[in-house]
Amino acid sequence: MTPDRLSFAGYRFPAEIISHAVWLYFRFPLSLGMVEELLAARSIVVSYETVRRWALKLDQAFVNRIRRGLPRAGDKWHLDEIAVKIAGEQHWLWRAVDGSGCVLDVLVQRRRDRRAAKRLLRKLLKRQGRPPRVLITDELGSYAVAKQAIMPGVEHRRYKGRNNRAENSRQPTRRRERQMNRFKSARHARRFRSSHDQINNLFQLRRDQVSAAEYRAEHARAMATWASVSDIAAAA
């Protein structure tokens, strides 16, 4: 496999089936077993373990392509952190979204302190290549300390319980955590969330803000982009 072209050589199933299975797993709150059943309903006999291996082998290649094709992130970043149980221990899932709800990045840490907040901001700056115009967080003091050290010139707005953009982005995380009976390790949580969020960024559709025809057109464009990302056309 190269960065510019995916290789499906050696796979028993065609690229269309592999791509569809990976899309189902990351796009919807489905377990591996549920994906296996959905494929079986279409007379495609594949085990959930095979779906798991497909996801592990291909997710990062798909994510890298999606990131390259998405529009530049907005200049308003919303940051938030939520507690998650991993192997019986509490961790913190830090996340950042832009003004349109597109997930910029995630970070899994054991602590909820200024060091973790600084690490998130550094990661975001490296990924985005520029600081935001406005940073919106809750009233956790770690954000203010980290912001002053990493990006002192950025406007910082702190709202207790009003950072709705970031808080609403928690919901898919909670649904997937329940479906998967919690994450098995911090690495598992970090890798899954990264793939899940970037694939879902591709399908940030404005269902309640556009007409039915416009929504269908947006959905068709998103599916066409996914087909391009997963090299379905090239493999056909």
Automatic annotation (TrEMBL):
* Listed transmembrane segments: none
Q: Which Pfam families match?
A: DDE_Tnp_IS240
UniProt key word DNA-binding: yes
Tell me the Gene Ontology biological-process terms attached to this UniProt entry: DNA recombination; transposition
Keywords, A to Z, come to: DNA recombination, DNA-binding, Transposition
Residues covered by region (Disordered): 161-191
DDE domain boundaries: 75-204
Please list the GO terms describing molecular function.
DNA binding
Query: Which NCBIfam families does UniProt cross-reference here?
Result: transpos_IS6
- Protein's recorded name: IS6 family transposase
